[in-house]
Amino acid sequence: MSFLKVHEIHHTYFTKASATTALSNISFTVEEGEFISLLGPSGCGKTTLLSIISSLLKPTEGSILLENKPVSTSKNEIGYMLQQDYLFPWKTIEENILLGLKLSKRLNSKTKTYALNLLKQMGLNGGVEKQLPKQLSGGMRQRVALVRTLATEPKLLMLDEPFSALDYQTKLKLEDLVSQTLKEFHKTAILVTHDIGEAIAMSDRVFLMSTRPGTIHKIFEIPDVLRNLSPFEVRNHEAYPAVFQAIWKELESLEQQNE
């Protein structure tokens, strides 16, 4: 039994004047502990698909099962990390990371200790928990956002371009940190990205989506020799350029079809 099963998803956006099909006939499975990336041209429906998988959006047709149960019944088991950190500026870092636990009525001394320990594991110690978000750099705030997501111990993580607003050096450091953390906790994750290098560096498989209506055009299996390395090491490995070129070539052909 697959951990996550996406079955024949179709989605159409309706307005009074028109109907636009965003996704068509999307089916795939994800195993527990696997890291998947969704890659594709702008407007191919990557974020729409992520929203459907996380049950924020109901598909026009199709079903999503998480551990063989409808995903709509598993909201507390899905964590979301976005491009913006969305920390409440008037709350301390501690208050921010405990927010999910508080809302799901799971905040107690044990879960609070777990969340604060996570903060330290991310290198955020020395009284950071008492500071406000404005006192931290962009990279530090994204670490806090990751801690807030992991604090509720979700089974599935949805990552919607979480590093795209960061400078390149911070982005590389955070890729390594997130990858290491998810492997350590054996988390299953789905990443939406426009960055081919990021998809290769972090994933077990890369799902290349076609232009609208979005479908799964091709699935790239990342070689084992790369999957066992950190994202930074992947980018410097001799096997990396060939995988990059293969994905780039397919993406170019898709974008040309759209012109």
UniProtKB/TrEMBL annotation:
Gene3D superfamilies: P-loop containing nucleotide triphosphate hydrolases. InterPro entries: AAA+_ATPase, ABC_transporter-like_ATP-bd, ABC_transporter-like_CS, ABC_transporter_ATP-bind, P-loop_NTPase. Pfam families: ABC_tran. It comes from the Bacteria. This is ABC transporter ATP-binding protein. Keywords: ATP-binding, Nucleotide-binding, Transport. Coiled coil: none annotated. Residues 4-232 form the ABC transporter domain. GO terms for molecular function: ATP binding; ATP hydrolysis activity. The lineage of its organism: Bacteria, Bacillati, Bacillota, Bacilli, Bacillales.
